[in-house]
Every structure is written in C-alpha cells, then in structure tokens.
C-alpha cells in the first residue's frame, strides 16, 4: 500500500435519544487510574448483504442505535469534571454526547494482511480528539465508521478508561450493536441493565468492611520500587521504539508448553490454567529478550476482576472500573532460574490474595496525585480479555473478522485475546521494543514447538 488514504466524509455529535437529568457520578480511585481512551477496531469482511448498501445507511443505523444506547448508558454522553478542591476527576452526566465520524478508503481489507497484527494504517481507522489538558471538553466515547474499497467495514471505537473497564465496555458496545440492528432481525438481543453508581468502591466504603489492615497492596509496593529502581538507573526508553505483535497460541502449543515447562509427570499432577502458564512464560521470555540485569527487580502484574471479590459482591451490570492489579516480583536472575511450577504458584497465590482488604489497600495506594508511568522494561503487565470476545459483537451482519486493540496507553501491557477462528487458541498481543522482537519470538515460541 503506497501511502493509503482515509477520507473523512462526516462528523457529528450524537446525543441521547431521551436526555437524562444532569447529575454527577463520583468516580472511584480505580476509575481515575487512566482517563485516556482505549481504542478498539472491529473489522467486518465484505458481505453480499451490505456491500450494495449505501455507507449512509450503515452510518445512520449506527447513529440511531448510539442515540438509544446513550439514553441508558448516560455517563457515556457526559464529560469528566475536575474537582476544584482536590483536582480529582468525576463524571458529569450532562448529555453532551458522543462523536461519530464517517470515512471511506480505497484500501481493501485483504491488503492489510493478518488483522491480528498491528498495522500503522489502523491509526487512521479511529477518531482521536485532542485533549489539550481540558477533560471537560473531551468526549468520553468516539467512533469512526470506515468503508473499505472492497465493501468491508471497520468500526473504530475509543472509550475513556475512566468510564468503563473491559467487561463494562463489552456490555456497552454489545448494547449499541443490538440497538443498531443493522442487517439483523429486529428481535433485539437481551442486554444488561447497567449500574453506573460506584457505590462501595468509593473512598472509605471498602475500608469500613475491612476485617484486617493491609499496609500496602503488593502491586502498589512493587510499582513504587520499580520506579525508584528506574530513577537510579537513569535508563531512557522512547515510546516510539515499541512495536506491537500478536502471537497465536493454539491448544496444541499450550499442551507442548505445559509438557516442556512442567514435565510429563509434574504437569499431570500440577493444576494450572492456560492464563497462569502463558503469563509465566511471557514474563520469562520478555525479561530475557530485554536483557534485564540479573540483580534488577522484575515484576509481573495482572488484572483481577474485583466484582465478586468484594463482600458483598458488586451488583450485576456494574459499569465502572472494578479491576485491581495482583503482582509478583523477583530478581531477573531468580526469574530465569526458578522453575515454572514455582512461578505459577506465585501467580496463583497473588491471585488468591485479592480480597476485600487487598482491594481497599490498592485503592488507598492510588490516593496520591496521578502521574503517567515512565517506561519500565522491568515491568510486564497482562490483561486477560479471553472472557470478553469482542469479535462476537455484531455491529454489521455476522461476527467481526477481528477486533484489534491499538497500542495501549501503558506500553508494558500485553493482552490475551480469544481467537475468532479457534475458540481454544489465545492471541497474545504484546508491545515490544523493536530491537528485541527476534529475541522475544525465539524465547517465546521455542518451548511451544
């Protein structure tokens, strides 16, 4: 593709079909961790059902569906509002609306190659509003509908992470797709009724339920130590050096990794999930590929859903951020020398420690001023999306050929995605420093072959 162009043909603000009374929703510290947009692109192959349809028809159906969805998911039509007293962000539900953009390109989807692998062209398939430091003018939901030269479509969405976490974003996008009903029967799918109030995730409410005191959540403690270690080392890593790659890990590859890493006898006796195994392996491979000094502390952190960890659990349909990070730390030398069984047990133990008290300690650890993380090659973060099959969301006729995340705001984050064509395979979407790609590929794939 020689300098492929995407032409914007329309841009408008979409308002709720039924405006809601203006109100404030107080955010929890979990919501405030990352107010930036998370971008996800849905690719739909050309179909005889809609290739002869006008792009305006598709755009208008999506607009109408979004209007209806914003009436129920009212915070998505609002804006973030900074408290003048403490500077903290909260949600102002004021019907300001979402941004929907229409675009066309002569590029054919087949020219993009493997859709699971990030391509710079993907950046042209999303609408990126300029922040300018003023969150009160920053739309929380943006979307771009792009028609390809072959008749296929991309729907690129951007959603503020302060608004929804992964499961909530999945529910919101599913509701939008159901309300749009493009090229589908009008029998709408059953969608979840969202609960937008943050309730007991707000400061103090979790603390009141604590039976014991946890001084500092492990994830916060480890992160603080990594930042201090980085400051002493004065290492500079540019953000632009990163490339994103996706490694498809089949069921057979997982079985071979289990055999090679745990041994035939131990593997049979030792129980672990595919997540635990691949996370341990990714951590080892990434640390080796980055040539981290043996004496340096390295850390694996992974997201744990707190919805059912709180006592009592959060209500079904909770739409805010309910994920905390669990954490495991070793020196690079220990990580290299320790058995997979030991590392997996550490991951399992870290997971089991996420309870009501840990969540409270984690939130308290986020009380200070929020600042963006420096690049930390000693940090590996894993976000498991395998229970959120975004590709199954049917904005158009049938499932998406792929649902691809763009580069995350924090470039140490690897995503585990469900593969659209093989439900037992896991797509490991990992940002890498360009010069480490070959080394990582070698370390990561060797034990699976």
Automatic annotation (TrEMBL):
Molecular function per GO: acyltransferase activity, transferring groups other than amino-acyl groups; long-chain fatty acid-CoA ligase activity
Protein name: Omega-hydroxypalmitate O-feruloyl transferase
Gene Ontology BP terms: brassinosteroid biosynthetic process; phloem or xylem histogenesis; regulation of cell growth; response to abscisic acid; response to auxin; response to brassinosteroid
Organism: Cucumis sativus
GO CC entries: endoplasmic reticulum; nucleus
Pfam families (UniProt xref): Transferase (PF02458)
Family: Belongs to the plant acyltransferase family.
PANTHER family: BRASSINOSTEROID-RELATED ACYLTRANSFERASE 1 (PTHR31642:SF145), TRICHOTHECENE 3-O-ACETYLTRANSFERASE (PTHR31642)
